[in-house]
Amino acid sequence: MQSRREVQREQNRGSALRTIRNILLTILILLLVGWSIYAVANQPRAAARRQTVTMAKQYAHLHSPGHFYIFNRESTYYSITGRNQSNQPILVIVPQHGGSIRVVKQANGVTEQQVRAMTMANRHPTQIMKIAPGIFNGKVVWEVTYRSHQGKLCYDLVNFKNGRYVQQINNL
Length: 172
Hints:
Blueprint: H1 4-60, E1 68-72, E2 76-83, E3 89-95, E4 102-105, H2 112-123, E5 127-136, E6 139-147, E7 153-159, E8 165-169
């Protein structure tokens, strides 16, 4: 026969195991819910990337897709970097709602890294939030979104071909 103390120890061990099991189940459920929310929230971006890559392969003969960008100004454009059949780096810009697809050789314009360096040197932002290519007034541009030293939101549009500022919106 077990003593009262032994019975209490067994009950305490069982209680501790149930507590650990419940904590692990809660963590697992939270991870699954978090992953599900992330997957659902990211689904439109993933679908846009897949569609852009498909169109770029079909119309621009894109090989080895690289960075994907979303540009929102007058219209929304999706862009993807990669290489063409001649193994030259290209940038393919696809309008969200139909229209002509633009294919530009990256060697014919300023790069994302050059735009980043130019912004750091000229604007001295505390944080560059986004750099994305797109079409503005019929020309290929880089949109730079950053925070100024005052914490204000700023946008610059930089001409893809010559690196000149097309538009500046400061301190929003």
